[in-house]
Write a structure and sequence with these properties.
The chain is an alpha/beta fold and about 375 residues long. Helix content is about 50%, strand content about 20%. The protein is built from 15 helices and 14 strands. It has helices at about 10-20, 25-30, 35-50, 65-80, 85-100, 100-110, 115-125, 145-170, 190-200, 215-220, 265-270, 285-295, 310-315, 330-335, 365-385, and strands at about 55, 60, 130-135, 140, 175-180, 205-210, 225-230, 240-250, 250-255, 275, 305, 320-325, 340-345, 350-360. The strands form 4 sheets. It has a 5-stranded mixed beta sheet, with helices on both faces. Strand 1 (about 55) and strand 2 form a beta hairpin. Helix 6 crosses helix 7 (about 115-125). It is elongated. The two termini are about 45 Å apart.
Length: about 375
């Protein structure tokens, strides 16, 4: 069961019925007859495989499942903006926003292109906005369309969390955790946390999206990523985000085995060799700049900008380059003797590694447990490095 296949009006009726324990009130709220609401709730119960209400002479009493699901539904409905929106319309427009093409979106959604056109057009009518427009041979979302796409993704994330909570309540293991992983977290912390979590919850699916902060922050804001692990940014860059520090990382300088600086170096020697660094704006690049500003003199050349540790490794072993990374990121190469740690970056050079989530995010129990496992692994790594 996925949230894209749930009937929005049926969900709205269920939520109102939970709030008022009344089918008649729910019927008025969603503009359906009482028998239609009763039937809608029954269909939902079949889809979910569990009872949402107990029928009593005095009315309908919500079950624990319905009480858990209702707040997620209410949050999703606020984001969607209307209970007249259909699941087919949401599916069509989210696919269009993701692919940027009616043809590709139709293939992804499993519908014909005319049907997808109609669904997106009807969604725009219901919401009162033009959502997409042609520009030359391409297609772009309007300003309102971009806002609607984000709200719909967040609505789907709420419903997905609600379904995961019901799965857990039903005594089943399941659900999905999506983690955005920036480079440093991929070296040791995240693999260890996933391994420990999977030992406890082997049926939970974990999806790791790799990328830079710039590549991951959009999916995080859209609800397509649950949490992001890596170097924290200035808090003013995302007031809708919550950043929680995990540990301080002090990077070190690496070179190939046999590099001329292996035997020793000074500030001037560091300027004589080309550097491989992430692009401007990355925390590590800023630390590198601060290091040389403290040492004085000109900045050395950076002929190669790269954030991929795998690529940096291959470049390091093939020339007299220098780079600055965490020891964890090249531990395998260090042990193999391919690269050498020629010394910690001079000065008070460090970066804060942490966890970033949306301010309005309400994690499920499994998501909270996963974050607790991350905290435990951080404690273990810090103790080992003391």
């Amino acid at each position: 069961m996925t949230p894209e296949h749930l009937n929005i009006r049926h969900l709205a009726a269920m939520a109102v019925a939970v709030e008022h324990s009344s089918v008649s009130v729910a019927a008025r709220a969603v503009n359906l007859t009482q028998p239609a609401v009763t039937q809608a709730i029954a269909k939902l119960e079949v889809q979910l495989g569990m009872a949402l209400f107990t029928r009593q002479p005095s009315g309908m009493a919500p079950t624990e499942a319905a009480i858990r699901l209702a707040p997620r539904v209410e949050a999703a409905l606020r984001l969607i903006g209307s209970n007249r929106v259909t699941a087919a319309q949401i599916r069509a427009f989210v696919a269009l926003a993701r692919t940027g093409s009616y043809t590709a979106a139709a293939v992804e959604s499993g519908v014909t292109e005319p049907s997808l056109h109609r669904a997106v057009g009807d969604l725009g009518i219901v919401l009162g906005h033009r959502l997409a427009e042609r520009r030359g041979r391409g297609l772009v979302l309007t300003r309102q369309g971009s806002a609607v796409a984000r709200r719909l993704r967040l609505a789907l994330a709420e419903l997905r969390s609600g379904l995961d909570e019901l799965t857990e309540q039903n005594g089943q293991q399941g659900g999905r955790i999506v983690v955005g992983a920036m480079p440093l977290s991929r070296a040791r912390l995240l693999p260890k946390a996933i391994g420990a979590f999977r030992t406890e919850f082997p049926q939970v699916h974990i999806s790791v999206h790799e990328g830079s902060h710039a590549e991951l922050v959009g999916p995080l804001r859209d609800g397509e990523v649950d949490m992001m692990i890596g170097a924290l940014r200035d808090a003013s860059l995302g007031k809708d985000l919550v950043q929680r520090p995990l540990f301080e990382d002090r990077p070190t300088i690496f070179a190939r085995s046999g590099h001329p600086l292996v035997e020793g170096w000074d500030a001037e020697a560091l300027r004589r060799y080309p550097w491989i660094l992430p692009p401007e704006g990355a925390p590590l690049r800023q630390l590198w700049r601060q290091m040389f500003e403290a040492l004085g003199g000109d900045l050395p050349p950076v002929p190669i900008e790269c954030g991929s540790v795998m690529t940096i490794r291959e470049l390091l072993v093939s020339g007299d380059y220098l780079t600055m990374l965490a020891v964890d990121q090249l531990m395998v190469e260090l042990d193999a003797g391919l690269v050498v740690d020629i010394g910690p970056a001079p000065g008070a050079i460090s970066r804060t590694i942490g966890l970033t989530t949306r301010e309005d995010w309400r994690p499920t129990r499994l998501q909270r447990r996963f974050m607790a496992v991350i905290d435990a692994e951080v404690g273990s790594l810090v103790r080992k490095n003391l």
